[in-house]
């Protein structure tokens, strides 16, 4: 009888152990969808982080390229600003030369060619003159030095004369045109 009790006890323990193993397996099966959800959530989170990091890097790259281009353009701006008085003086000299008769034609043509080459070089660097005479006065690009009475009503607010030529550098005004305006 003692042997039967031991066998019965052992069978009961085996049954309990077996039931515990079944419960563990069922618990694992129940946890698997949660783990899959967790894996999908982690994937979505990592993918979102990757996309944000990639877009941040692209924005950084574009911003640094723009800053580099602006730096190059602004470096050229100070040199070109310093050369504008030279351009003005050269234009005045050419006007004076055209009025004189005792200077050889070849000299006048040579100086004119040098001036055109100099101006073309500046224009290749982004310099562009502001057209003022005959245009409506615009305080964003013109500086009114003098006002002159208009001959008729249509001429009011129109630039009559340009005292100093203004210039753009890459669509930015680097020197305002000094003008005479009809009022």
Report the C-alpha radius of gyration, rounded.
Answer: 42 Å
Mean pLDDT: 85
Sequence of secondary-structure elements: HHEEEEEE
CATH class of the domain at 128-183: Mainly Beta
- Sheet/helix structural class: alpha+beta
CATH topology of the domain at 128-183: Nucleotide Exchange Factor Grpe, Chain A, domain 2
User: Low-confidence runs (pLDDT<50, min 5 residues)?
Assistant: none
CATH architecture name of the domain at 128-183: Roll
State the distance separating the first and last CA atoms. Answer: 131 Å
SS field, number of helical segments? 2
- How many DSSP E strands? 6
Structure commentary:
The chain has 183 residues and is α+β, with helices and mostly antiparallel strands. It has a domain at 128-183: Head domain of nucleotide exchange factor GrpE (Nucleotide Exchange Factor Grpe, Chain A, domain 2, Roll). It is built from two helices and six strands. It has helices spanning 2-99, 105-124; strands at 127-129, 142-148, 159-164, 167-169, 172-175, 177-182. Strands 1-4-5 form a three-stranded antiparallel beta sheet. A hairpin with a 2-residue loop joins strand 4 (167-169) and strand 5 (172-175). Helix 1 (2-99) packs antiparallel against helix 2 (105-124).
């Amino acid at each position: 009888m003692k042997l039967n009790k031991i066998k019965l006890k052992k069978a009961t323990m085996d049954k309990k152990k077996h039931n515990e193993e079944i419960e563990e397996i069922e618990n694992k099966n129940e946890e698997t969808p949660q783990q899959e959800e967790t894996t999908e959530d982690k994937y979505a989170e990592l993918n979102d982080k990757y996309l944000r990091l990639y877009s941040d890097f692209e924005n950084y790259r574009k911003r640094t390229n723009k800053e580099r281009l602006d730096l190059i353009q602004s470096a050229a701006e100070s040199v070109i600003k310093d050369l504008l008085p030279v351009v003005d003086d050269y234009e005045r000299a050419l006007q004076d030369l055209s009025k004189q008769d005792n200077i050889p034609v070849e000299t006048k043509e040579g100086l004119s060619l040098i001036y055109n080459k100099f101006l073309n070089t500046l224009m290749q660097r982004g310099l562009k003159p502001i057209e003022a005479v005959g245009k409506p006065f615009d305080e964003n690009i013109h500086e009114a030095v003098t006002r002159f009475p208009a001959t008729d009503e249509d001429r009011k607010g129109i630039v009559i004369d340009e005292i100093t030529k203004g210039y753009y550098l890459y669509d930015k005004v680097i020197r305002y045109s000094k003008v005479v305006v009809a009022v």
